Amino acid sequence: MSAPNKSYDPVEVEALQPEQVERMRDEALAAIAAAADLDALTHVKTAHAGGTSPLALANREIGALPPQAKAEAGKRVGQARGAVNQALAARQAELEAERDARVLVEEAVDVTLPYDRVPAGARHPLTTLSNRIEDIFVAMGYEVAEGPEVEAEWFNFDALNISVDNPVRSEQDTLFVAAADGSQDSGLVLRTHTSGVQIRSLLERELPVYVIAPGRVYRSDELDATHTPVFNQVELLAVDEGLTMADLKGTLDHMVVSLFGEGMTTRLRPNHFPFTEPSAEMDMLCYVCRGESVGNPDRPCRTCSSEGWIELGGCGMVNPKVLVACGVDPQKYSGFAFGFGIERMLMFRHNVEDMRDIVEGDVRFTLPFGMEI
Amino acid sequence: MRVPLSWLREYVELPAGTTGRDVQAKLISAGLEVETVEQLGAGLQGPLVVGEVLTIEELEGFKKPIRFCTVDVGKANGTGEPQEIVCGARNFAVGDKVVVILPGGVLPGDFRISARKTYGRVSHGMICSARELGMGEDHDGIVVLPPEHEAGTDAIALLELVDEVLDIAVTPDRGYCLSLRGVARETAIAYGLPLSDPALIDVPGPNPDGHPVRIDDPTGCDRFTARTVTGVNHEARSPIWLQRRLQKVGMRPISLAVDITNYVMFEVGQPLHAYDRSRLNGPITVRRAQPGEKLTTLDGAERVLDGEDLVIADDSGPIGLAGVMGGAHTEIADSGPDSGTSEIVIEAAHFAPVPIARTARRHKLASEASRRFERGTDPQATSAAAQRAVDLLVLLAGGTAEPGVTEVVLPYAPRTVAMAADHPDRVAGTTYGRETVVRRLQEIGCDVYGSDELIVTVPSWRPDLGAPNDLAEEVIRLQGYENLPSTLPRPRPGRGLTATQRLRRRVGRALAGAGYVEAPCYPFVSAADFDRLGLGADDPRRRLVLLANPLDDTEPGLRTTLLPGLLATLRRNHGRGAQDVALFETGLVFHPTDGATAPERLPVDRRPTDEEIEALKAALPEQPQHAAAVLSGARERDGWWGKGRPATWADAVEAGRTVAREAGVELIVRPAQYAPFHPGRCAAYTATAADGTQVPVGYAGELHPRVVAALGLPERTCAMEVDLDVIERVGGGRVTGPHVSTFPVATQDVALVVDAAVPAADVEAALRDGAGELLESLRLFDIFTGEQIGEGRKSLAYALRFRAPDRTLTAEDASAAREAAVAAAAARTGAVLRS
Ligand SMILES: [Zn+2]
């Protein structure tokens, strides 16, 4: 390396020797090639390409040369500097690539590490299944109606044509709110179904009424593997001009297709309920075996006990007496209704074997159901 | 109702080869719930024959008495020699006729019989008990047959051991199917075959010579037939066929007279009662009991009667609970001190369903008779049923029918229903046509007149048919529910979920997203729950809606807070080994309404008035929707990322904010002392209502250590509960889109020293108010206590960001705003700038 020329006096300067320029260039190129890392390269850059490097100084001296020497020297120094800069850039890229390769490898982590830092939450499948069913009917134009869980007997029984002497109004079946004297003559019960919401809907809404009534209901039952005294229902009520049992059947069919897939269907069997006439028990085709297990001992079905059908709940045409109690003209309007238990559907839809798992709130049961069902 | 196929065939000539399963399928399709078809005598194989016991030798020296018998089995064993059989039963004597299965035979349950050595002898067969033959559960010993059957007779046929029994769950509207007559009618319709109606028999007309009967209560009884049979041989036993039919329908044969009344009840559906005439005092009266009157019923229980009970009485007082159970005094006896009953009065009456149902329930005395009267019997069948019983008593007990026939019949008009001929079509949504409708109605026993408008007279055994829809159901079920078309109605467009419903879903999602698991709990609580929660004696949450008949007497109330249920669930999870548990629930709580009285019983034949509906609703308790969360263990777990942190009061308080945020409500948090929370770690939430007032929303914090101990919860369990209805009410305002300023932000930090007891929320509120409109945001980023600050003091460090909507703020602008903020904090909280 040549020392910087401090006394800048062009007159004294000799013409640049070509060998001198070549040497400067070669020294620079050698230093560049020898730079082991980016830091070293930075130093090399300062020394051989910086403002005080020999080539830079030589370049500055060119101005002082006589005109005939100036052009030649300028060309020579320019070429040398170009070569040095090119080499610098190349080496810079080379070293950066090396560094990146090394550092990114060093920064690699085990992405398979678990991250259960905050425990997960979940919604209860009873809620999400009920929501899911609500959504099916909301999409059809139904609205979701709700009511209180402690309900007046008139809403829960009388208006539904369930007479005082009906055995379901006994303490074996129904939980009665105590009157002031402790007796069960308070006129209030823990609702035994969400049918009271149907009555409220007919009283409060304008006709036609298309509502779905989900909610918690109560029966005087013991908790065991298949029963719970506190359970959830979804009931549906449609009251309009000209509604028929065929409409009821079609609505049920639509529901099971929405919940269980194409090809699903329902079956109605005659039954008796005070609030509907005609009344029916509704079954849905077994969504697992689609009925193929019936009479086929080689392919038994646990879901439907090889019956081919799964019992869903009760349904029927709204008893005209119920319409009358709600001030609806049965000559003009007819309606259909159905209801079924969410717990039961949860059990057969998700292979839950014990009711207690649904009601006990063990997080191990609920967590796998996540946020939607 | 159990229906033996062999008995059913007596009224419907089913095609040969028809099985119980065939009939089951047909009846199910017609709407009868045939639950099972029991195969009686399945696998049974002879030789099974009548035997006559010739000799009995008692074998000694065994744990139980054993008999070695020789039994004449006729030619059944091929030799005619007496059969040697070892038997463990003792209820027979030499000369008795018994049932013997010989080697080679198979009893139900694949029990194969062969000659075998037992008790030191070789037993060539077995003398059978009723249970072994599949005849019933009686196991008092072996079956002893009436003497008239000859040894060697095939007992499988004699005892009708092979049969099929349909078990039908009869719905309350189909009382007529609690009889062979009714089920036979449905079977005949289903097969399109004629029915031979067992009630269609000749009966003598009434005359004044029968046992006198008076009906004092025409609302409870509108028809009463009384017949008398004398000269009854009280030693006569029911023949095998009668006993077997009763066994198959599930009745125990008792005595001939009782068996006959039961038999006719199952046959025709008309419950009968038989009185010992010698024990009757004067005329039979049907009346209501006098309150406090006493009656000892057949089951031996002495019952104190209610004024509503319908009774049968004579001059001595009540002699039976009408339609439910007879009295012990007039019971017919086949033996006893007075030698048995020889004169029998048969009662066949029609009682109204409601009083019978009430009496049966009041006295907890459901009987085969009350089951039938409750559902409604055929009032026209009383005389035929009585005649059947008389005939059987004459035939089987050697009795003589007295010519006297009592028939008390109140005026009666058959029920008619007017129905448009196309009504069933319109209910079903399909076209049956008038002809089909008329034919189906006639099949079930209706008389039908008219063309477009049908006048339908319903049969006496169908009290359930009273309206056009009832008739439509009959037509539709007989045409087959399975043949209904499937169509979809077109509701008018709905408005989707309500704001409340959407909020509840969002709250559930938000809490679940924040790591809480939803756990819907039973709402039943006890006073002890509140003791454990440390609630004061006059805490309003102790005022409960109580149940008259709780599932568990120790939990008679309905929850006023969600916490007892959630905490119990948390403890259960903890007890099962879960360490970090966070749960939530949204649900109703119940508060009694002050001064609420039982609502009036409203009519059902019209719409109640708006006032009546309001009065009804006012009688209900308040039932607000709450949301609550509980948590314990780690909120963040230890792991490769470093230390975790335990769940704290702050998480609980934040859970409330999470809920409120879903409603667009900002909660104001104040320190509070409120059970069941730690007095120094409890936050009360309020929110600002539309009118500017502060409304209470709920509480959160760490539970009181004593509550944690009393409930057996993990240490430092935390909880939160808010009233979701209140949150919804104050929230939901429409958000105004903020103007977003693109001018630069000016940031200023400030550290303020205040008394340790000053809530940070107060300092923050003062800063906000003082800083004015230029303040864009404010955040507490550090709290410091220590010597430099002074004892009982804390330093709060805030980052303030200022921005103007219309210009770049100068340093002076920002400083001025900051100083104003500090001045406000100083004035309101005594804060001083930390130097
Ligand atoms: Zn299946």
Automatic annotation (TrEMBL), chain A:
Recorded superkingdom: Bacteria
Q: Which CDD domains match?
A: PheRS_alpha_core
Report the subcellular localization: Cytoplasm
Output one GO BP term.
phenylalanyl-tRNA aminoacylation
Cofactors: Mg(2+)
One cellular component term from this protein's GO annotations in UniProt: cytoplasm
Q: Quote the record's binding site residues for Mg(2+).
A: E277
Database matches in Pfam families:
Phe_tRNA-synt_N, tRNA-synt_2d
Residue ranges of every copy of the Aminoacyl-transfer RNA synthetases class-II family profile domain listed in the record? 133-368
Grouped into one coarse class, the protein's main location is cytoplasm
Tell me the GO molecular function terms: ATP binding; magnesium ion binding; phenylalanine-tRNA ligase activity; tRNA binding
Entry note: cofactor = Binds 2 magnesium ions per tetramer.
Task: Give the first-level EC class, as a single word.
Answer: ligase
Which NCBIfam families does this UniProt record tie to the protein?
pheS
Q: Which family does it belong to?
A: Belongs to the class-II aminoacyl-tRNA synthetase family. Phe-tRNA synthetase alpha subunit type 1 subfamily.
Subunit-structure text: Tetramer of two alpha and two beta subunits.
Would you tell me the protein name for this molecule? Phenylalanine--tRNA ligase alpha subunit
Query: Which species is the source of this protein?
Result: Actinacidiphila guanduensis
Query: Source taxonomy lineage?
Result: Bacteria, Bacillati, Actinomycetota, Actinomycetes, Kitasatosporales
Q: Which gene encodes it?
A: pheS
UniProtKB/TrEMBL annotation, chain B:
The record's subcellular locations are: Cytoplasm
Q: CDD domains under this entry?
A: PheRS_beta_core, tRNA_bind_bactPheRS
Textual note on the cofactor: Binds 2 magnesium ions per tetramer.
Q: Do you know which SMART domains this protein is assigned to?
A: B3_4, B5, FDX-ACB
The primary location reported for this protein is cytoplasm
Domain TRNA-binding residues, every copy: 42-156
Q: Record's SUPFAM superfamilies?
A: Anticodon-binding domain of PheRS (SSF54991), Class II aaRS and biotin synthetases (SSF55681), Nucleic acid-binding proteins (SSF50249), PheT/TilS domain (SSF56037), Putative DNA-binding domain (SSF46955)
UniProt keyword annotation of Methyltransferase present? no
From the UniProt record, give one GO term of the biological process aspect.
phenylalanyl-tRNA aminoacylation
Task: Output the Gene Ontology terms for molecular function.
Answer: ATP binding; magnesium ion binding; phenylalanine-tRNA ligase activity; tRNA binding
Enzyme Commission number, as recorded: 6.1.1.20
State if Transmembrane helix is listed as a keyword: no
| Coiled coil ranges | none
Catalytic activity reads: tRNA(Phe) + L-phenylalanine + ATP = L-phenylalanyl-tRNA(Phe) + AMP + diphosphate + H(+)
Q: Which residues form the B5 domain?
A: 412-486
One Pfam family this chain carries?
Answer: tRNA_bind
Cofactor dependence is on:
Mg(2+)
Q: Could you give one GO CC term from the UniProt record? A: phenylalanine-tRNA ligase complex
Q: Where does Mg(2+) bind?
A: D464, D470, E473, E474
List keywords of the entry alphabetically.
Aminoacyl-tRNA synthetase, ATP-binding, Cytoplasm, Ligase, Magnesium, Metal-binding, Nucleotide-binding, Protein biosynthesis, RNA-binding, tRNA-binding
Segments forming domain FDX-ACB: 741-834
Into which family does the record put it? Belongs to the phenylalanyl-tRNA synthetase beta subunit family. Type 1 subfamily.
Per UniProt, subunit arrangement is: Tetramer of two alpha and two beta subunits.
Q: This protein is called what?
A: Phenylalanine--tRNA ligase beta subunit
